[in-house]
Amino acid sequence: LEGAPNFRDLGGHRTIDGQAVRAGLVFRSGHLAHLTDDDVARLMALDVRTIVDFRPETERAITGIDRVPNGADYRAIPIGDPTMAPHVKRALEEGDFTVLPDLRDANRSLITYFGGQLGEMISVIADAGNLPLVFHCIGGKDRTGIAAALLLALLGVPREAIAADYLRSNGRVGGTVPAQDAFLDALTRRYTDTPLSEENRAALRRFFVLEGSYIEAAWNEIELVAGSFEAYVQDHLGLTDGNVERLRANLLEPA
Fold it and tell me: Lesser CB count within 10 Å: N end or C end of the chain?
């Protein structure tokens, strides 16, 4: 999508037991406030029924209200990461990106403090009547990246493939430094008239260019707080065996 370049289908992944994630049912994205009319028409053509927005109200006020296709159900499931949200708000309001947090810490915090919200999103997906569905945060890489990782893990996708999907967000800001710089400059112009200093540019690159260690921090935190992924699903995401069975029935097909 022109106005949401990190929009993509989670379908097509292969699972450990030889199945495939169905295409056209669950999409991950950055926020939808800057969609063009053609973008909205494409979402309508995809028959998108549900939009799940992880941004708290303070972030929506800064980055804009989603453009939602006619007839789609908009659901706010706010995730205001305590190690992240105040710093992101300050960065966007003041143009000081040196205050942005370390994403390893942010991902650990998401796992520890927001299992209930992440589980709620997955429960929404487990209801076939809500599909096709789009879930997103601001850039579609952090909160959305962790939510996508948990969803794919529940479907039985290997962690190597999950990590590759997580890192695909980097391609959306360009695989080269000049392309990344162009993206960061364009992003900055949305929120401030002040040109990027080299210090701010370096801080933004650390925040927007993902590393494998970021998703590994999330898996390690799951082991730390719950002992195993299976225990995390039950005790932190709050999902039942029935939830997981419906999820897999909705989203998996023979490869």
Answer: C
Strand-strand pairing, 26-29 and 8-9: antiparallel
Helix (H, G, I), strand (E, B) or coil at 252: strand
- DSSP letters, 58-82, are HHHHHH------TTPEEEE-----T
Instruction: Find out whether the peptide bond into 82 is cis, omega within 30 degrees of 0.
Output: no
Tens digits of per-residue pLDDT, 156-207?
Answer: 999 999 999 999 998 775 555 565 566 667 666 666 666 778 888 788 777 7
Gap between the terminal Cα atoms of the chain: 27
Does residue 246 contact residue 126 with C-beta atoms inside 8 Å? Answer: yes
**pTM, entire model:** 0.86
Q: How far apart are CA 126 and CA 151, in angstroms?
A: 10
Give the separation between CA 250 and CA 61, rounded to whole angstroms: 34
Contacts 24+ apart (CB under 8 A), 210-214: 210/103, 210/141, 210/145, 210/166, 210/167, 210/169, 210/170, 211/103, 211/167, 212/163, 212/167, 213/104, 214/103, 214/104, 214/107, 214/166
